Amino acid sequence: MRIEGLTVRYGGFTAVDDVTLEIPDGHAVGVVGESGSGKSSLARAVSGLVPYTGRIEGATRIQMVFQDPYASLDPRMTIGETVGEGIAKRRRATEVPRLLGLVQLPAELAGRYPRELSGGQRQRVAIARALGGDPALLIADEITGSLDVSVQGTVLNLVRGLRDELGLSMLFISHNLAVVRYVADTIAVMHRGRIVEHGPTEQVIGEPAHDYTRTLLAAVPRLRGRS
Amino acid sequence: MGARTAADGGVEQAAGHVKKGPGRRGGVWRSAPALIGGALVLLMAVLAVVGPIIWGAAAERIDAGAILQGASAEHPLGTDNLGRDLLARVLVAGRYSLALALLATLIGATVGIVLGALPSVLPRRGARLVTGAVNALVAFPGLLLAMFTAVATGLGARGAVLGIGVAIAPGFARLTQTLAASVAGADYVAAARMLGVPRRRILARHILPNIAEPLILNLAQSLGGALLGLAGMSFLGLGVQPPDFDWGRLLFDGFTWIYVNPEVALGPAAAVALAGIGFNLLGDTLARAASRSSAGQRDTARTAPPERAGEPDPDAVLEVHDLTVSFPGGSTPVRGLSLSIAPGEIVGLVGESGSGKSLTAAAIGGLVPYPGTVTYGRLRLGGADVATLSGKELGTALAMVFQDPMASLNPALKVGGQLAEVAVVHQGASRADARRRAVDRLGHVQLPEPAKQAAQHPHELSGGMRQRAVIAMGLMGTPRLIVADEPTTALDVTVQRQILRLLREVVEETGAALLFISHDIAVVGELCDRVVVMYAGRVVEELPADRLADDAAHPYTRALVASLPDLDTDRGRPLAGIPGTQPAPARVGAGCAFAGRCPLATERCRSERPELVVHGLRQRVACWEVTS
After folding, report:
1. Across residues A53-75, what is the average pLDDT?
2. Chain B residues whose beta carbon lies within 8 Å of the beta carbon of residue A75
3. Are A63 and B194 in contact, with CB atoms under 8 Å apart?
4. To 10 degrees, the CA torsion angle through B114, B120, B122, B124?
5. Which one has a higher pLDDT value, B265 or B531?
6. Quick one: what percent of chain B has pLDDT higher than 90?
7. Mean pLDDT throughout B306-318?
8. Which of B496, B519, B545 sits opposite A219 (nearest CB)?
9. Do the chains contact at A160 and B574, CB–CB below 8 Å?
């Protein structure tokens, strides 16, 4: 699919400014940028949640996973009801256990409520719900941003595994370059609503072309003495 | 400082300062208003059921010989113009009055909720029309609306009920609309929309269930209002017409004679008042019970257990020994934590959410929220027990920086004024001196154009600037210790880098120590001299930060380091994670808390807790498998 000349305005403020981005089938495109760079607005525009100008071509069946798994699940619905929300009633009984299996959760969780689950489990439920919509493109907006480091790894592994297994195209958004690098095939760097650099992951990380990318890379905290 | 510590150490009273907080808790239903409200409503309900059965005949008995009498033994509230006993009539009228009020409330609530929910399902123009109509109705005085409706639909009980219902509806509509709008913005509604769930269904499955609670609370209070409103309508002659009677009608009839026999009006008036008060108190209680989780912060009990714990360390800026924070119900988020920090040292306290790291910081600053209890063997700041420090001394010796700078800044006041306040309150500086110092400090944290920034409100500053201003606020005094709780978590990486550099400079310049609390082990490893790793309320490892990557010994620390992706992680291999979850603060067992997730765990780990013991140079570890 292809995003062309996409612009999102809130009143007089331009959040996304004439962005053109290609997401080849089965590819994961990472978007990095700081708060206010427009990366979340881009995600919401592609998802159809905010109005935009420009064109989005070939976008069928888009689903999104949100940042905060504590806010993205309805506290009054069971896990089974949440995961089955986008599925026809007669297929729900078979589909819900299959989707929970895909995200490596036991099928027994279907009868529980979100408050009984940990943050990592909730995020898996949110991913299962999105997969229930049979997406051609999965948008992941900062999905490990509210998770602990010890859980982040397992969720990232899951996302990578699902991509390989289901051939999903992905738009993977994060402020954390190390996280994006781990998941994405190509990385787009956003700054003040524009994409300032877009290239293969190793190239963007190894030989950044834009000054802002270099600044971002230099700011990533690293453990001293790590070999 | 050394001298001061030695002097204080000699007279340290370990035997304890007990600042007792209020011990009551969860007493919403036992408070006087709740009991009175509940009793009144119960009384009204019983009266509505049995009133007409018991006193029905007495209320209708006409006695030509006892017309318009005052209070007597036979008629405690007197009689009306047909000689009927007024006490019996008041008791009988309860059912009719309450039934009408209930009906009016239900009509009002139904109409209101439908009007309030309609904009969520109607197309844009229709939604705007409904919203506009509701706005106009809300602006209309309720009683006027009620009277107009009552007159238009015909005098009598039906008109009055419709009138009061119409008067209640706009309030309900507005409440529904506001609540629905906030739920409609939730991520789970966005997710449902993306899955193609129709708007009707979103309303029924997501929005209504999540706003039901406040609506039901409002219902109880509206009932009281409807009762009073209906009594008012009847009193004005717009409501119930003879031969029917409710409390308002009785009041209307009795009012003519109020100068002759005040008691004939007193009875119905008291009944209306009692019922109204009852329903309102009950509604208040329901609302308070629903919001009990967000009970206000109060003074927390802080107790020092009597046992002495060795001699105090004269060189430490902060010395914590055996600190425990617990909450009623068996939850103990911090368990016997010990920690000491030298002047100029930067210590990182790292752990995942729920490890107790933030509560440790709160306990040091005396900020543990009610109803938490803090106990400690020793908690000394700059050589003095924190319990003996006045608020003023604590305020200048300790600076705290939190994740959200807006939590530390008053949005209504200018930045410079807030900083100056610190110097005025804690150091007794004059206003002008305080202002000068504030601008100086703002310059110190490298805020460009400090004089100009001082005259701005917090919202005019960016997130990084605000965090600088909060750090400057801490520097208004002469802090010996800066406690920074996730100060860069809400900031961008490039801004984070600047704030970290600033913190380091501040430490080098002032000689203050820094306790830096973070979930991000990479940030901690980069900034700190020493790292303290917490898990389930306890310290599991302590080591120099530059050895974190290679020499961490505890399986938890090692797993944390391994699960952190960096720019050199092998993309071909799965990332390490830690299976399972940290036990909740109420469910930490007798053994090592990490045993359930640990690849090295043995039977001993599950039953016996390892102490923190020295393991190599400047390193301490609490793990059976590593240390023995």
Report:
1. 89
2. 210
3. yes
4. 140
5. B531
6. 27
7. 69
8. B496
9. yes
Alpha helix ranges (H) inside B315-390: 357-364
User: By the CB < 8 Å criterion, does A220 face chain B?
Assistant: yes
Two structure tokens written together for A24: 């080849």
**Is B353 domain-assigned?**
no
Q: Residues B353-405: pLDDT tens digits?
A: 889 998 999 999 888 888 889 999 999 998 888 888 888 888 888 988 888 88
Which of B98, B86, B138 shows the shortest CA–CA distance to B116? B138
Residue type present at position B125:
R
Chain A residues inside the 8 Å CB shell of B495? 34
Number of independent structural domains in chain B: 1
Residue matched to tokens 């107009």: B148
Instruction: Taking the CA atoms of B394, B399, B404 and B405 in sequence, report the sign of the dihedral they define.
Output: positive
Q: Which amino acid is at A175?
A: H
Range of the domain at B105: 45-293
What CA–CA distance (Å, rounded) separates B126 from B447? 50
Shortest alpha-carbon distance between residue A74 and chain B (Å): 6
CB contact under 8 A, A178 and B520: no
The CATH number given to whatever domain includes residue B103 is 1.10.3720.10
Cβ contact, residue pair B194, A49, below 8 Å: yes
- Who contacts B213 (Cβ-Cβ below 8 Å, separation ≥6)? B290
Using the 8-state DSSP alphabet, how is residue A55 labeled? Answer: E
Which tens digits make up the pLDDT trace of B56-73?
887 888 887 877 777 787
Q: What number of C-beta contacts closer than 8 Å exist between A and B?
A: 172
Q: Judge: A154–B525 Cβ closer than 8 Å, yes or no.
A: no
pLDDT of residue B13 exceeding 70, the answer is no
Q: Tens of pLDDT along A137-188?
A: 999 999 988 888 888 888 999 999 998 899 899 999 998 899 999 999 999 9
- φ/ψ of B379, rounded to 5, equals -145, 95
- Rounded distance, CA B300 to CA B368, Å? 7
Transcribe B250-263 into DSSP letters. Answer: HHHHHHTTTTT-TH
Cβ atoms of A6 and A20 within 8 Å: the answer is yes
Establish if B223 belongs to a structural domain.
yes
Say whether B205 and A74 touch across the interface (CB within 8 A): yes
Contact B188 A73 (CB under 8 A): yes
Give the pLDDT confidence score for residue B297 in this predicted structure: 40
Smallest Cβ distance to B577: which of A68, A73, A153? A153
Decide if B137 is inside a domain. Answer: yes
Residue A62 distance to chain B (closest CA, Å): 7
pTM: 0.77
Tokens standing for residue B190: 């966005």
Task: Enumerate the residues of chain B whose CB falls inside 8 A of the CB of residue A182.
Answer: 565, 569, 571, 575
Q: Is the peptide bond before B371 cis (omega within 30 degrees of 0)?
A: yes
Q: Look at residue B278 and tell me if it is in a domain.
A: yes
Looking at the complex, does the CB of residue A89 fall below 8 Å from at least one CB of chain B?
no
How far A185 CA lies from chain B's nearest CA (Å)?
10
Residue of B179, B206, B520, B566 to mutate, interface with A, max A Cβ within 10 Å: B566
Amino acid in position B83: G
Report yes or no: B483 and B365 within 8 Å, Cβ to Cβ: yes
Instruction: Report ipTM (2 d.p.).
Output: 0.86
| 3-state per-residue secondary structure call for B449-476 | CHHHHHCCCHHHCCHHHHHHHHHHHHCC
Q: How many Å apart are CA B522 and CA B157, to the nearest integer?
A: 73
CB contact under 8 A, B564 and A149: yes
Task: Please give the C-alpha separations between residue B378 and each of A38, B308, B320, B489, in angstroms, as whole numbers.
Answer: 49, 8, 6, 30
Counting every residue written for chain A, the total comes to 227
Q: Could you tell me the end-to-end alpha-carbon distance of chain A, in angstroms, rounded to an integer?
A: 40
Nearest chain A alpha carbon to B576 = A153
Would the pLDDT of B332 be above 50? yes
